[in-house]
C-alpha cells in the first residue's frame, strides 16, 4: 500500500453532519464570537470531543509538540494499518504548526490528500510573513488538491470549518482544506457564514456616488484594509467598499472554471463564479491585499473587469511595512490613473503619511 485510500460511506456523511450540527449550535449559543481564529477552532474541536452527537465521529491529529498529551494521535500512520478506518472514512482535523511546504507536503501525503489542515504557524514569532516560508503560499495556491483559507476572525474560521466538513465529507468532494490560524482577537466584524466559505463577502453597504473604490482583504490584513477605508473617507472624501476574502485562491479557481466552461462548451447556459457574482462587470477599481506575497491576491487580476492592483508582504522595499497608509495611497493612485481625482492627491498622501 503506497498511499492512504479512505472509503467515503454513508456513515462518513452522517458523522460530518453531526459535527456541523454541533458547530452551528455553538454559533447560535454565541460561543466565543469575537475570539481569534485559533482560539475558536481549538474551542470548537473541544466541543466536538465532548458533545454526545459528535464524540467519536471524527479523527483528530495534533503534531504540535508543546500540546502533545497521552491519547492524542500525532500522525495519521495508525490509519494506514486500520482496515475499519480505511473502509469507513471520518472527518479528519489535523492540527499542526508548519512553516514549510515540505512539511505540509509530507503530512498531506500521510493523510491521502484528505482532511482539514489547521496550521497555527502565524501565531509564532517569525522573520517570514505570516510565519510561513515564502514558498509555502506558492505550494498552497498551485496544489489543486488544496483549498487554502486565511480567516480574519473566529466567526470566519467557524464558517469555513463547517463549509469544509460539508464539501469534503457530506458531498464527498476530493482534496483537503487548509486554514492558517492567527491568534489576534476579533474587532466586531460581522461575518456572513454562507459567503465566507465561498471566498468573499462584503462588509459594508455599496457606497453611493463617485469616486469610490473596492478594497479586498484577507486574514489580519483585513484590519488594515478597514482602517484604509476610514482614512480614504475621513482624509480624502472617498468612499470605499470593503470585502473580506478568506480565499483568493478559491475565488480565482472558480473564475478560471467559468472561463474554461465558456471556451469549451459553447451554446450552453453560462456558468457563474462567486467572484463575478460579487463584483460583476463593474469598472470600479479594486485593490486586493494579502499578508502573504503579492501573487496570492494577484491571482484575481485576470478575472476582475475593472482596474486592479494587488498588495502583499513583498510589494514594498524590505525596510517598509505594508499598512493602512500604503493601502490608502494605492487606492488614491488607482483613482488618479482613471483621472477621477487629481494626481496631486497622491503626492500629498505620500508626504502626509511619510511614505517617502
From TrEMBL:
Organism superkingdom: Bacteria
Metal-binding among keywords: no
Gene3D superfamilies: 3.40.50.920
Keyword set includes DNA damage: no
The Transketolase-like C-terminal domain, residue ranges: 199-301
Name this protein carries in UniProt: Pyruvate dehydrogenase
InterPro entries for the chain: PDH/Transketolase, Transketo_C/PFOR_II, Transketolase-like_C_2
Source species: Pseudomonas graminis
Keywords annotated in UniProt: Pyruvate
Amino acid at each position: 500500500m503506497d498511499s492512504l485510500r479512505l472509503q467515503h460511506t454513508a456513515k462518513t456523511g452522517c458523522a460530518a453532519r453531526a459535527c456541523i450540527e454541533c458547530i452551528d449550535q455553538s454559533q447560535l449559543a454565541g460561543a466565543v464570537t469575537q475570539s481569534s481564529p485559533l482560539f475558536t477552532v481549538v474551542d470548537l474541536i473541544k466541543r466536538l470531543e465532548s458533545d454526545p452527537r459528535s464524540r467519536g465521529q471524527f479523527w483528530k491529529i495534533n503534531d504540535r509538540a508543546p500540546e502533545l498529551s497521552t491519547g492524542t494521535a500525532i500522525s495519521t500512520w495508525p490509519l494506514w494499518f486500520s482496515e475499519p478506518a480505511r473502509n469507513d472514512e471520518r472527518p479528519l482535523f489535523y492540527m499542526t504548526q508548519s512553516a514549510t511546504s515540505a512539511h505540509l507536503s509530507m503530512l498531506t501525503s500521510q493523510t491521502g490528500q484528505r482532511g482539514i489542515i489547521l496550521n497555527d504557524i502565524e501565531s509564532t514569532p517569525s522573520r517570514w510573513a505570516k510565519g510561513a516560508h515564502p514558498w509555502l503560499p506558492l505550494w498552497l495556491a498551485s496544489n489543486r488538491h488544496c483549498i487554502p483559507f486565511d480567516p480574519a476572525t473566529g466567526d470566519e474560521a467557524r464558517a469555513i470549518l463547517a463549509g469544509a466538513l460539508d464539501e469534503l465529507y457530506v458531498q464527498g468532494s476530493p482534496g483537503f482544506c487548509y486554514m492558517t490560524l492567527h491568534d489576534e482577537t476579533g474587532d466586531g466584524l460581522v461575518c456572513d457564514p454562507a459567503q465566507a466559505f465561498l471566498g468573499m463577502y462584503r462588509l459594508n453597504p455599496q457606497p453611493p456616488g463617485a469616486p469610490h473604490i473596492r478594497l479586498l482583504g484577507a486574514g489580519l490584513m483585513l484590519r488594515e484594509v478597514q482602517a484604509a477605508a476610514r482614512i480614504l473617507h475621513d482624509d480624502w472624501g472617498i468612499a470605499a467598499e470593503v470585502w473580506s476574502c478568506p480565499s483568493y485562491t478559491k475565488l480565482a479557481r472558480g473564475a478560471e472554471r467559468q472561463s474554461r466552461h465558456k471556451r469549451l462548451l459553447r451554446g450552453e447556459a453560462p456558468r457563474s463564479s462567486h467572484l463575478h457574482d460579487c463584483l460583476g462587470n463593474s469598472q470600479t477599481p479594486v485593490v486586493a491585499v494579502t499578508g502573504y506575497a503579492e501573487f496570492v491576491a494577484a491571482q484575481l487580476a485576470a478575472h476582475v473587469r475593472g482596474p486592479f492592483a494587488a498588495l502583499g508582504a513583498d510589494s514594498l522595499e524590505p525596510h517598509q511595512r505594508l499598512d493602512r497608509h500604503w493601502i490608502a495611497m494605492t487606492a488614491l493612485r488607482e483613482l488618479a490613473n482613471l483621472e477621477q481625482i487629481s494626481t496631486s492627491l497622491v503626492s500629498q498622501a505620500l508626504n502626509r503619511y511619510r511614505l517617502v
